[in-house]
Amino acid sequence: MHWIAGFLIVAGLFFFAVGVLGILRFPDFYTRLHAAGKCDSLAAVLIIAGVALYNLTDYSFANLLVSLKIMAIAVFVFVASPTATHAITKAALVIGVEPWSRKDRDQ
Predict the structure, then answer these.
(1) Which of 1, 44, 72, 103 has the fewest CB atoms within 10 Å around its CB?
(2) Which residue ranges traverse the bilayer (predicted)?
Protein backbone atom coordinates (compact mmCIF):
# COMPACT_ATOMS: atom_id res chain seq x y z
CA MET A 1 0.00 0.00 0.00
CA HIS A 2 2.91 2.34 0.75
CA TRP A 3 4.31 1.84 -2.75
CA ILE A 4 1.03 2.67 -4.46
CA ALA A 5 0.49 5.73 -2.28
CA GLY A 6 4.05 6.88 -2.94
CA PHE A 7 3.62 6.38 -6.67
CA LEU A 8 0.42 8.43 -6.70
CA ILE A 9 2.04 11.25 -4.76
CA VAL A 10 5.12 11.31 -7.01
CA ALA A 11 2.92 11.21 -10.12
CA GLY A 12 0.94 14.16 -8.75
CA LEU A 13 4.14 16.11 -8.14
CA PHE A 14 5.21 15.35 -11.72
CA PHE A 15 1.98 16.76 -13.11
CA PHE A 16 2.30 19.86 -10.92
CA ALA A 17 5.80 20.37 -12.38
CA VAL A 18 4.49 19.93 -15.93
CA GLY A 19 1.77 22.50 -15.19
CA VAL A 20 4.37 24.98 -13.98
CA LEU A 21 6.38 24.47 -17.16
CA GLY A 22 3.24 25.05 -19.20
CA ILE A 23 2.52 28.28 -17.36
CA LEU A 24 6.06 29.49 -17.97
CA ARG A 25 6.39 28.41 -21.61
CA PHE A 26 3.01 28.93 -23.27
CA PRO A 27 2.48 32.21 -25.15
CA ASP A 28 -0.85 33.61 -23.96
CA PHE A 29 -3.38 33.67 -21.16
CA TYR A 30 -5.67 30.96 -22.55
CA THR A 31 -3.02 28.34 -23.20
CA ARG A 32 -1.41 29.02 -19.83
CA LEU A 33 -4.75 28.65 -18.10
CA HIS A 34 -5.35 25.41 -19.99
CA ALA A 35 -2.04 23.99 -18.77
CA ALA A 36 -2.70 25.14 -15.23
CA GLY A 37 -6.27 23.82 -15.15
CA LYS A 38 -5.58 20.38 -16.58
CA CYS A 39 -2.41 19.64 -14.66
CA ASP A 40 -3.66 21.16 -11.42
CA SER A 41 -6.81 19.04 -11.40
CA LEU A 42 -5.05 15.79 -12.16
CA ALA A 43 -2.12 16.45 -9.84
CA ALA A 44 -4.31 17.44 -6.90
CA VAL A 45 -6.51 14.37 -7.28
CA LEU A 46 -3.48 12.06 -7.53
CA ILE A 47 -1.82 13.53 -4.44
CA ILE A 48 -5.01 13.51 -2.41
CA ALA A 49 -5.72 9.91 -3.43
CA GLY A 50 -2.15 8.97 -2.46
CA VAL A 51 -2.61 10.56 0.96
CA ALA A 52 -5.93 8.73 1.43
CA LEU A 53 -4.33 5.39 0.55
CA TYR A 54 -1.37 6.08 2.82
CA ASN A 55 -3.79 6.77 5.67
CA LEU A 56 -5.36 3.32 5.16
CA THR A 57 -2.19 1.46 6.13
CA ASP A 58 -3.43 1.14 9.72
CA TYR A 59 -6.66 -0.81 9.26
CA SER A 60 -8.98 0.88 11.73
CA PHE A 61 -12.47 2.27 11.35
CA ALA A 62 -11.34 5.80 12.22
CA ASN A 63 -8.71 5.76 9.47
CA LEU A 64 -11.28 4.47 7.00
CA LEU A 65 -13.56 7.40 7.81
CA VAL A 66 -10.70 9.87 7.45
CA SER A 67 -9.74 8.34 4.09
CA LEU A 68 -13.33 8.59 2.88
CA LYS A 69 -13.39 12.27 3.85
CA ILE A 70 -10.12 12.82 2.02
CA MET A 71 -11.56 11.15 -1.08
CA ALA A 72 -14.62 13.43 -0.81
CA ILE A 73 -12.21 16.36 -0.97
CA ALA A 74 -10.63 14.80 -4.08
CA VAL A 75 -14.05 14.59 -5.74
CA PHE A 76 -14.73 18.22 -4.86
CA VAL A 77 -11.39 19.31 -6.36
CA PHE A 78 -12.07 17.18 -9.45
CA VAL A 79 -15.36 19.03 -9.99
CA ALA A 80 -14.49 22.53 -8.77
CA SER A 81 -11.13 23.09 -10.46
CA PRO A 82 -12.31 22.68 -14.09
CA THR A 83 -15.41 24.72 -13.30
CA ALA A 84 -13.30 27.57 -11.92
CA THR A 85 -10.95 27.39 -14.91
CA HIS A 86 -13.92 27.63 -17.27
CA ALA A 87 -15.34 30.62 -15.37
CA ILE A 88 -11.99 32.45 -15.47
CA THR A 89 -11.63 31.75 -19.19
CA LYS A 90 -15.13 32.99 -19.95
CA ALA A 91 -14.57 36.15 -17.89
CA ALA A 92 -11.34 36.84 -19.80
CA LEU A 93 -13.14 36.39 -23.09
CA VAL A 94 -15.94 38.75 -22.01
CA ILE A 95 -13.54 41.52 -20.98
CA GLY A 96 -11.68 41.23 -24.28
CA VAL A 97 -8.46 39.29 -23.70
CA GLU A 98 -7.34 38.35 -27.20
CA PRO A 99 -6.08 34.83 -27.95
CA TRP A 100 -2.57 34.39 -29.30
CA SER A 101 -2.12 33.86 -33.03
CA ARG A 102 0.84 33.13 -35.29
CA LYS A 103 0.91 36.68 -36.64
CA ASP A 104 1.64 37.85 -33.09
CA ARG A 105 4.76 35.70 -33.12
CA ASP A 106 5.95 37.10 -36.45
CA GLN A 107 5.69 40.74 -35.37
Answers:
(1) 103
(2) 6-24
Structural domain count, the chain: 1
Q: Using H for helix, E for strand and C for coil, what is the string for the chain?
A: CHHHHHHHHHHHHHHHHHHHHHHHHCCCHHHHHHHHHHHHHHHHHHHHHHHHHHHCCCCCHHHHHHHHHHHHHHHHHHHHHHHHHHHHHHHHHHHCCCCCCHHHHHC
End-to-end CA gap in the chain: 54
Q: Which domain holds residue 90?
A: 2-106
Residue pLDDT, tens place only, 76-90: 999 999 999 999 999
Which residue pairs, CB below 8 angstroms and at least 24 apart, start in 10-14? 11/46, 12/42, 12/43, 12/44, 12/45, 12/46, 12/47, 12/50, 13/43, 13/47, 14/43
